[in-house]
Amino acid sequence: MTSPSGRETPPRHAAPANLVVLRHGQRVFGDVIESYLRRVDFADDGYARLIRLPGYSDAEVVVDPQRGFGQPIFTHGGARVDDTLGRFRAGETMAEVAAEFGIDQNELEDALRVASRQAA
Fold this sequence. Notes:
alpha+beta
């Protein structure tokens, strides 16, 4: 597929059942790949535009190269997750951080839980 600028672009939506690991020639688990591909929004050129990160129960956290320098951000408020957690770790209360960044306190608590699991 070629973009309007003449650049080669990836296929729009490859069927996960047909994906193969090139090194081994094995087919991938289509159901697993499909569940991850549902988290990706694609731009008109076929490349990933936004990825919704798994693991959060209350917070909606995305990676969007157009916002937050491609770092994980809260969709509500647009704050970078690392910035909010840094302020909390520096001693501000959850309520103060949530109010400062315009996010729900439950979302901030959820992000803290996810970050704590990653560190363990």
